[in-house]
Amino acid sequence: MRVIAIMNQKGGVGKTTTTLNLSHALALEGQKVLMLDMDPQGHLGSCFGVDTYHSSGMDQVLFNETNMLDAIQDVRDNLFLIPAGARLGEIETRPQELNNQRNGYQLVDALAQIDSKAFDFILVDCPPASGLLAMNAILACEEFVVPVTGDYLALQGLSRLIKVVTHIEQALQKDIRKWFVLTRFQKQRKLAQQIKNKLINYFPHQVLETAIRENVSLAESPGFAQTIFEYRPRSNGAQDYRQLAIDLLENRTLH
Ligand SMILES: Nc1ncnc2c1ncn2[C@@H]1O[C@H](COP(=O)(O)OP(=O)(O)OP(=O)(O)O)[C@@H](O)[C@H]1O
Ligand SMILES: [Mg+2]
Questions:
Q1: Ligand 1 centre from 209 Cα, in Å?
Q2: Mutate to test the pocket of ligand 1, among 7, 17, 220 (most ligand atoms within 8 A of CB)
Q3: Which of 72, 77, 84, 199 could bond to 88 as cystine, CB 3.0-4.6 Å?
Q4: Domain spans of the chain?
Q5: Measured distance CA(200)–CA(207) in Å, rounded
């Protein structure tokens, strides 16, 4: 079982879009995939037409009110979801109510309830923040997929994220495999190419081969509660996420 956090504290870089479409692409490849929404905004659930605020979700799981297995919803063939739930944000604001002394380890403990052979992949959609929810994801995941957009501020935020993660890796003597993926990529833009080259320089063998192109169908499909493979299966977006899934299955990177 590969447990992967889709992580970047920068907002709007394509974390949720990547979580849902990469997960569905993996499921269509025959992998059994569970998605966890760790963002109180609850967008991942909305993308599947799930009413986050009336579902038991990651809030109850982390507050230790529900067993993780009971919160899993079956959303597509091979594809499962635990939505955020209405009170997920309270993890950040009322952490004293977590009846677990090991703060930050709620997700680690919850995942221990799942048989390691139950799923091939668990993909965790993280919030655009670096609080307790993100910390839970960092501690629970062995791999990160970091979506990066081709704009000027993208790299600045990245160095901070890497610093935090390196610090945690050293403190815990844990090795997190990091994958970077270019999202909202516009090949004709010089700046996007520059960011791509810099990323490959900084992180050799860690940038996944496929860049996700800017594609309006990716932005439209959640409005119909569909993934890109249902909404526009022949679009660039579908093509790119299908390839990205293979990159992840076969460790295909740029160097
Ligand atoms: N490749 C793409 N082409 C076009 N639009 C995209 C693409 N990827 C993401 N978007 C759009 O950009 C916006 C931000 O994407 P998304 O919600 O996936 O980012 P996020 O990192 O999860 O944001 P947040 O930090 O708020 O959780 C959304 O409207 C989404 O539909
Ligand atoms: Mg999001």
A1: 20
A2: 17
A3: 84
A4: 2-248
A5: 6
CA distance 206 to 214: 21
CATH fold of the domain at 2-248: Rossmann fold (3.40.50)
SS (H, E, C) 103-126: CCCHHHHHHCCCCCCCCCEEEEEC
Q: What is the rounded average pLDDT for all residues in the chain?
A: 93
Per-residue pLDDT, 101: 63
Q: Angle between the 132-140 and 152-172 helix axes, to the nearest 10 degrees?
A: 60
Segment 30-34 shows an average pLDDT of: 98
Alpha helices (H) along 126-235 = 132-140, 152-172, 190-202, 216-220, 228-231
Mapping DSSP to helix (H, G, I), strand (E, B) and coil, where does residue 234 land?
coil
Pick from 77, 96, 47: nearest CA to 218? 47
**Which atom of ligand 1 is least distant from the CA of 11?**
25
DSSP state letter for 3: E
pLDDT tens digits along 221-243: 999 999 999 999 999 999 999 99
Q: Which residues pair with 74 in a beta bridge?
A: 80
User: Contact, 22 vs 248, CB < 8 A?
Assistant: yes
Q: Which residues pair with 146 in a beta bridge?
A: 180
Q: Compute the average pLDDT of residues 74-98.
A: 90
Average pLDDT over residues 13-32: 98
